[in-house]
Design brief:
By secondary structure, the chain is of the alpha/beta class. The strands form two sheets. The chain has a four-stranded parallel sheet with strand order 2-1-5-6. A two-stranded parallel ribbon has the order 3-4. It is globular.
Length: 343
């Protein structure tokens, strides 16, 4: 066990709160903590306070009995889509990628909220003005319904800490954070007010580590080069290889397809369910699986649909008659798409 893990586990054993940048690191440290307790001969031990920062903030919100107000990611995503769709209908502009636009708008809103940035009074482009309209409508609805957006959780939690509703442990250790964000600075400020100590713990740099930089033409080539690099190491006998992808959730399908083609092409045609030569730490979202995705698309379809929605409903195999009417539906799909090409 390296000094980084030893320090965190020792602090957790003495009652410190360990906040990690993600759930995976929290699980890893929790497993390591249990292993150390077993090695020391303990049969039982208190559950350590090792949790991701987002998880801890959500737990604090629940402790305040305010979790019922939290607008979680999926309903928030759907609300953004509805607001954008309504705004586009009023302007007679059709967005071809409604879901992607909503994703980007939600991400921009979260960053602006975290960094307390305001767009009012600035010279904005048409696209930025559209986003500002969406954001104002989103915030108005949240206030009317008494909903708490996920980006607002730190504000509520830190206020509760200041008011004495939530007590902090004497020592808080931060693990896995590369940047000192406003959320962490807010935690530092409220901790100082309660006399608690916040420390950022970083692993020791490896003396033998070699860093190389390689440029690529686009994101696809970047993934292909990483997959070939990993395959080359495997052929040399390396047993364990890690590839870090900051935006894995957005590129999961592409990365899985390319890595499988490079590293484990036989798995694509294998009849048995044997374990693949590689795995992704991020599982597929339930809403992205075939039947669930189709069900959500069907439920969201109204009297007024975009061409993408109509095309999906014609092509999905999860609607009755998909096989018997496949030829007719395909012709109708082509006919609908022809209008987009003419516009």
């Amino acid at each position: 066990m390296n000094p980084f893990q030893t320090r965190l586990i020792d602090a957790a054993a003495h009652g410190a709160l360990i906040l990690t940048s993600n759930k995976r690191l929290a699980r890893h440290l929790s497993v390591a903590f249990d292993s150390v307790m077993q090695q020391q001969g303990h049969s039982v031990w208190p559950t350590p306070q090792i949790i991701s920062l987002d998880g801890w903030l959500s737990c604090c919100l629940a402790e305040m009995d305010e979790s019922w107000r939290l607008l979680d990611r999926f309903p928030a995503q759907r609300l953004w889509e509805q607001l954008i769709e309504e705004d586009s209908a009023e302007s007679e502009l059709e967005l071809l990628q409604l879901s992607s636009t909503a994703d980007k708008a939600q991400e921009a809103h979260q960053l602006l909220t975290e960094y307390q940035c305001q767009l009012d009074g600035l010279s904005l482009t048409d696209d930025q003005q559209a986003f500002l309209r969406w954001q104002r409508k989103y915030q108005d609805i949240c206030r009317q319904q008494q909903w708490i957006d996920r980006s607002e959780i730190p504000t509520y939690v830190y206020y509760a800490i200041t008011e004495g509703q939530i007590r902090l442990p004497r020592q808080i250790l931060l693990a896995g954070f590369d940047q000192w964000s406003p959320t962490l600075q807010g935690l530092q400020d409220v901790a100082d007010g309660q006399g608690a100590q916040v420390l950022k713990v970083q692993p020791e740099p490896l003396a033998a580590a070699q860093i190389h930089r390689h440029s690529c033409n686009d994101s696809r080539q970047e993934v292909e080069q990483a997959a070939r690099w990993a395959r080359n190491l495997l052929e040399q006998g390396v047993e364990s290889i890690g590839v870090v992808v900051p935006d894995l959730s957005q590129r999961r399908s592409q990365i899985e397809r390319i890595f499988r083609a490079q590293i484990d092409p036989a798995a694509s045609i294998a009849l048995s369910a044997e374990e693949s030569a590689f795995s992704l730490s991020l599982g597929s979202l339930l809403k992205e699986t075939g039947p669930i995705h189709a069900a959500l698309e069907i439920l969201s379809a109204g009297f007024r649909m975009t061409t993408d929605q109509a095309s999906f409903l014609l092509r999905t195999p999860y609607l009755g008659g998909s096989l018997s009417e496949s030829d007719k539906r395909a012709k109708l799909d082509v006919w609908i798409r022809s209008f987009r090409q003419q516009s």
